Design the sequence.
């Protein structure tokens, strides 16, 4: 089971998309996200926290 915390997710969002965007999503993120849980994976995708979307947002290629 791979789990990330809300704080970690918000920090990643802040670095990649900026503080305003990260702050706008704080209420949608649960305290713990299980990367193996389909519902949490769907939420991460919606928030832009997938490897390919993160890499693209940071100007790289996946």
Sequence:
């Amino acid at each position: 089971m791979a789990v990330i915390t809300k704080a970690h997710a918000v920090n990643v969002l802040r670095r990649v998309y900026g503080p305003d965007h990260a702050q706008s999503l704080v209420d949608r993120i649960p305290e713990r996200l299980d990367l193996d849980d389909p519902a949490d994976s769907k939420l991460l995708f919606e928030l832009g926290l997938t490897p390919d979307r993160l890499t693209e947002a940071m100007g790289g290629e996946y």
Q: What stands out?
A: The mean pLDDT is 86. Residues 15 and 54 are 10 Å apart (CA to CA). The chain has one domain: 3-57. The chain is about 60% helix and 10% strand.
